[in-house]
Amino acid sequence: MFTYEMPTKLFFGKNCIAQSGDYLAQLGKKALLVTGHHSAKINGSQQAILDTLQQLGISWAIFDEVENNPSILTVRRAAAFAKAEQVDFVIAVGGGSPMDAGKVIALLCTNEIDDVQLFSGPYKKPLPIVAVPTTSGTGSEVTKAAILTNPHAGTKQSVTDPLLFPSMAFVDPTFTMGVSPVVTIDTAIDALSHAVEGYMSNNSTPVSDVWAEEAMHFIGPHLTELGSDVSYAAREDLMYASTLAGIVIAQSGTTLIHGMGYQLTYYKGFTHGRANGMLFPSYMYLMTETMPDKVERVWDILNLDGLDEFTNIMNKLMPDTIQLTEEDIDCYTKLTMPTRAVQATAYNVTADVIASIYRQLR
């Protein structure tokens, strides 16, 4: 048997906030906008939301201090601000960091929990969550997970519960038009890793596989143009694929790429998507051994000859080098081994396997 849950009401397309924003009136009389420092102001997403809130007579407060890879301290500070402002719901605007932060802020507004229980539950129902993505990578607008930097564990960890599915998501590709080439690459590869890892996961289902293949169909034609100017039509494809890939991992979770990549972000400062891309070819080599039919299907959908061509594309998009000591590798391997990502990987993942992949990055 398998289950399927995707309770988020999704609005997709240009000007979707202006066209369908009146649904926000169902959620309350005051909103907390959660964003980063700059991008939501520059790309027009924040103003589009504020215009709609004003038309609806909904008041708001703004927390615009979410950093990349948000910390426990930041979300706790934001939740205290939200409670003081007596907000009714949370609107999270931005890439993965603001959306993930917004989910946890909504949770902390209704739950008095310590840092241990924050990652384990159980939880009471959070404030309603609205997600407005402005990059095409994370898919957080349709998932039940939020990733935080956890200094107690020495890595990034997930707060995961069906209660964290956003009530609504407004997905407007227009907001991604000003995204830089580097961020466009990183986020597209993040979305691709979601689709492929979900497709290869031990937890994949017939339904999640449909969405995974659809996401790959819309990313594949644009892989070789990610480093150049990207048209609106292409950005619409990438945003659609990102959302579909988010639906995939909401059902199947992620696998070894994410489990290993978090260490490269936490300790070495690589963006999440870039860390994924660096690990992607080695992961696909493993999958060739255990899931050859699905691997061949991936190459077919992406219109690639095979692993060599894929590796060349990843190396061109992400020609990064990394310095890893044996002590680093030992530490990262120990952090990766107990994760759900390892358990979901369709391969006999041992410490030696993980260490070998890390060594290949040097």
From TrEMBL:
GO terms for molecular function: alcohol dehydrogenase (NAD+) activity; metal ion binding. InterPro entries: ADH_Fe/GldA, ADH_Fe_C, Alcohol_dehydrogenase_Fe. Residues 184-307 form the Fe-containing alcohol dehydrogenase-like C-terminal domain. Keywords: Oxidoreductase. Residues 7-173 form the Alcohol dehydrogenase iron-type/glycerol dehydrogenase GldA domain. It comes from the Bacteria. Signal peptide: none annotated. Belongs to the iron-containing alcohol dehydrogenase family. This is Alcohol dehydrogenase, class IV. It comes from Megasphaera paucivorans.
